[in-house]
Protein 1
Amino acid sequence: MRIIHLSDTHLRRSDAPHPHGVDATDSLRRMLAELRPVRDVDAVVVTGDLADDGAVEAYRAVRELVGDFARAVDAPVFYTTGNHDERSAFAEVLGSGHLAADGTDRAEAVGDGCAAVSTVGGRRFVTLDSLVPGKVYGRLGAAQLEWLREVLSVPAEHGTVLAFHHPPIHLGLSATQPVFGLRDPEELAAVIRGSDVRVLLTGHFHLQLCGFLASVPVWVTPGVVNRVDLTAAPGTERAVRGASASLVDLGGPTGPVFHTFHARDPRAHETVYERDEERTRAFVEREG
Ligand SMILES: [Fe+2]
């Protein structure tokens, strides 16, 4: 099974200004154009921050652009919420978030959030909702984890893919990742340990990262809107231009195997924004 994994498209209303001069719609178009030649795609996963401002119009644009790609490769799409998303606008446009290649809703949202489950070729896809309204960090919460425990109590034919926005892992090089990731990773680890979950697909950090939770591989796919550059001075944060996305191949004895694609952007690596040490500290204190 081959999954195209996108995240952090951050689309806005068409009349909204582009933050830091980056046109997010253009970034998504470039990324999808780059991915066109990829063959044998079984599923597309988009792990949150679909809209930058929660606008219904932005969700429609994501659905149209990603939906066109999914139709061309004849694969379903699985969307999750991120910290920038707005649940009611997400649900209005994307329903459960599990859309067939022809755009029809193939699942039902569970509980008050935007979690859902459906199966493709014996492989179970579970999208979780780690959005905490008004916060940059994420949390799955006891009720959602209890639901997940029940879902996983019956193994799927070919195992389970879990997708959500906030990574349960981080890298010591970053000043912000330890504060703004998933706040209940131990509770999630307790639920997936020994289950049929093969991989956790996440986003949010705008860079690629791989680690493990309860012996399950965790993949953080880079962002579509921009890339966070960890060569910035310690304690600071810098983002640069350049959309990226991943191919996750679950098949074979060595899977999952991860590959990162980069969109062709003549302005790639140009600085988008920089936060010095003082502003980064203030951001972490304010939002953390
Ligand atoms: Fe995010």
Protein 2
Amino acid sequence: MNVLLFGANGQLGSDIVRLWNDPAVTLTGVTRSHCDVTDTEAVERVIAASHPDAVVNTTAFHNLPLCETDPETCFLVNVAGGRNIAAAAARYGASIVQFSTDYVFDGEKRTPYLESDARHSLNVYGAMKIATEDVVRQANPDALIVRVSGLYGLAGSAGKGGNFVETMLRLAREGGPVRVVADQVTAPTNTAEIAEALLPVVKHGARGVIHLAAAEGTNWHDFAAAIFSIAGLQPDLQPVTTADFGGPVQRPLYSVLGSTAVPPLRHWRAGLERYMAEKHGFGT
Ligand SMILES: NC(=O)c1ccc[n+]([C@@H]2O[C@H](COP(=O)([O-])OP(=O)(O)OC[C@H]3O[C@@H](n4cnc5c(N)ncnc54)[C@H](OP(=O)(O)O)[C@@H]3O)[C@@H](O)[C@H]2O)c1
């Protein structure tokens, strides 16, 4: 099976490259320097040249404050880019695997969101990802939408300036109080766990929508506390509310993802321990 991967140097994309060691799968990674997904003709050329059976799109413009101030770029990369890839894949007979987000939901629910739950986003990024899901499916009926949440991976996200775990470790080392929101519950997920769970799903040719996120939710304050506990650090960690924290972006207060389609990933703490061991050698 030939798989073409867009976003190969992102945190999720690079874990797919690192962990898909399957003799039945030939994976070709594409980075932004090779092909800008907003360039319709460049996307077409790359897909035409590689004869893929499946195309995986992990690219995104997902710096949330920037999405609020620059919705045009948010639209171009996520919606137009996603459509470019899905449509070109369809023209060359390939299926499309498009990544999406827990932020397609508004957080009004208090039990895990399932694939069948109605989408209603609170911010520009989430709205653009809802549109991405829809145009991808319109352009290529052979589509799998994979919603994930709270990603952190070894490579970090260039577009977001790293990841939450590394930000917490840096703030702890800097010595001041570390203020973290305690009223937003989600499921922070190690991208390695997603990459591994995705491989059999893609090989099996799954279609529709699936949620791949760590089992159980936690709030960002308690997630930070777990990071510091594993790292043996004791900063002045202070819980704050979303209202205290302020900022231009409205976020769902609850966005844990559950699934009726695929088995749950491991507990968020297991994914975090794995990351802390692989990235920093803690606990090894
Ligand atoms: N991070 C999260 O917390 C989170 C949560 C829920 C859902 N998601 C979704 O999960 C997926 C993977 O996220 P991630 O955290 O792995 O993202 P990431 O690390 O930021 O990687 C995104 C990739 O997209 C590439 N890219 C951006 N604009 C591009 C363009 N115009 N043309 C070509 N490539 C472009 C980036 O290239 P450069 O490195 O060159 O910039 C990067 O390789 C995305 O669909 C995202 O929306 C993420």
Protein 3
Amino acid sequence: MSKKLYLETHGCQMNVHDSEKAAFALSDLGYEVTTDPTEADLIMLNTCMVREKAARKVYHRIDELKHSFRRVSEKRKGLPIFGVMGCVAQAETDRIFERSQDVRLVLGTQAIVKLPTLVEQIEQGFPRAIDIRLTKDAEFFELDAGVRQTEHVAYITITEGCNKFCSFCIVPFTRGRERSRPADKIVAEAQALAAQGFKEIQLLGQNVNSYGLSGRYHGSFAGEQESDNGVTFARLLERVATESGIPRIKYTTSYPRDFDAEVVRVMDTYDNLCEWIHLPVQSGSNRILRAMRRGYTRESYLEKIAHIKNARKDMSITGDIIVGFPGETDDDFNETLSLAAEVGYDGLYIFKYSPRPHTPAATYTDSVPEEVKTERFLKLQELQDRIQKQRYARYLGRTVEVLVEGMSARSAADCYGHTRCSKIVNFKADKQLVGQLVNVRVTEVKPHSLYGEIVL
Ligand code: SF4
């Protein structure tokens, strides 16, 4: 009889992709994925530490899952194996064991390849199994195109880790030093996904722009960068665009200092490179950008934005901003407001600062009171809502290409999908179109989505 794996994923696309890799790795041991945790033999929580709340949620979730097991326990011999993977596993191993005696497996972010061995050790009677090693030459887990858990959109890892050490960010401590995956493997994976029928791929990395640069910055914005292995991110994009046969290619996340004009030129050249750029600024104040150790200024960021706006394609720009970073004054925050207004983001993820363990900013003493953070958050959100309304209005009457991803949760007659510029669109359509690319004329603009009708 096959064994059941319940895998719950929190956080970003990188975690979603890691969960696919974990499920595939465990299929060798006879594990099949289930959506019902109470029938699972192994429960893995793939965790995120971007926000403090997300980390706390892990412990709460383990308790919840244990309680649901107790309710059905008479049907079972005992508790399943509980495992934690992802950033919380990497950064809080000891705390996990202290907080929850039932966790028996802790898997670091570079250890997915070892997952079957660790699970086997537990199945053979070892009380616990842990692998949280981080090395700068850890191998990439290669995932077959035919075993994806995601439908319609497939993820491809291009870099892992980060060398930037922004003062608020835990990623360099949980994901290790930056490594770039060989370009030939990335291109071959994209070709295999095209052969499987995927219409869209997303190239993933903590900082895609330093692909091939080992985390170092070699060039200037206008001049092409010099890579270690002859393949910069711009050249990789070009290869994937010309060699993969995939109709829609997106990527995330960009890092403003390393983002260069060549990337915009390549995006402008190839139609299958989608017109969406996520370029997180984090703050509009040079003083705070310095404290965050971001390595760029407000002016240099805005110069890049101006360049993107001059592209042939109508690029959709989205970003991330942290409010209430230690020492942020009203003047600093006003600089952030004015930057957001000047950029005119199509979408903005706003976070209230909260300290992450191991990071330099966690030791900064000039913290901003919680109520001030909330006030700033709401003020920026209100500004962004107004900007977004104007930005979305430009789509009214336009025909946009949509990848149909499923039926809408709100209306049984509607399908939903994403545009090339990453906006959600709902429209009346038959579910047979799920997985297809269709053209939709936008008839209504909502605060966070578009509504339209199919153009035949
Ligand atoms: S570049 Fe991004 S992932 Fe790297 S340290 Fe800075 S915020 Fe974290």
